Amino acid sequence: MNEIIVIIICIVTLILTQIGLNVKFKDLKQFKTRNNEKARRISEKFPKDEEMCIEILKMLGNNSNVKIVSNVEYNSCLYTVYNNTITIGKFKENYMKPQTIAHECVHACQNKTILWFNFIISNIYNLFFIITLILALFNKLPFTNAFLISLTAISFIQYVARFTLEMDAMTRAPYIAKEYLLDNKIINEQEIKDLLQEYEEINIIGIPLTNYSLILKNLVKIIVLCIAIMI
Ligand SMILES: [Zn+2]
After folding, report:
1. Residue 213 counted as domain residue
2. Percent of the chain beyond pLDDT 70?
3. Angle at the Cα of 198 (from 170 to 195), degrees rounded to 5?
């Protein structure tokens, strides 16, 4: 009974968050089919990914010897604090490169305490979830309420740390990309304007969606644990 109430609360929270953040899934569909031929043509003038990354890090005054690795098997870009590395994967749309690379460069320059805290708490959180889930599936989880509350508390801490880092990177990235493009004169001013217009339209939908997906992932874990406790 307890678990059913928790599941209902999680679902209501998700619905309210979706309404509050104005996340519309039909926007996502439009998003994928938008015509961005102009931006694609502009992106043909971009230098190599590593070159762009080095320049942006320099611009941000980062001198902590960040390693830059290209990995075409990856479908995204990622900064990992434990090895101080930016991994640049394959891009779905090449015109996103300046903003995405700037985003990872911001991560590389963020407060190391928050970065390490996010890394450690995320690992503890995943481990805690897997162990409690296995115990629940084998009916070996004592004090189920205490574990459910603990999972909720850890997920809240993890969300706050991740949210702080992501919001900072997402809001600063387009401005840094603009500065980089202006400074390096890779494309002309009209092309920079067109590209930034594209980023703005993407970010209006993308930033709330990223925030929503962070909340969704955490609430789904709580729902899954509730189901495992019930069966
Ligand atoms: Zn990020």
Report:
1. yes
2. 97
3. 95
- Please tell me the distance between residue 183's alpha carbon and the centre of ligand 1 in angstroms: 24
Does residue 214 belong to any structural domain of this protein?
Answer: yes
pLDDT value at 133 more than 90:
yes
| Residue 7 clears pLDDT 90, i.e. is over it | yes
229 CA to middle of ligand 1, Å?
33
Residue 128 lies in a domain: yes
pLDDT tens digits for range 161-191: 999 999 999 999 999 999 999 998 889 889 9
Q: What is the span of the domain harbouring residue 9?
A: 2-45+110-230
- Distance in Å, CA 230 to ligand 1 centroid: 35
Q: Is the confidence at residue 1, as pLDDT, over 70?
A: no
Instruction: Quote the number of domains for the chain.
Output: 1
The SS3 of residue 6 is: helix
Q: Distance, CA 108 to ligand 1 centroid (Å)? A: 10
Residues whose CB is less than 8 angstroms from the CB of residue 10 and which lie 6 or more positions away in sequence, other chains included: 219, 222, 223, 226
Q: How far apart are CA 65 and CA 115, in angstroms?
A: 16
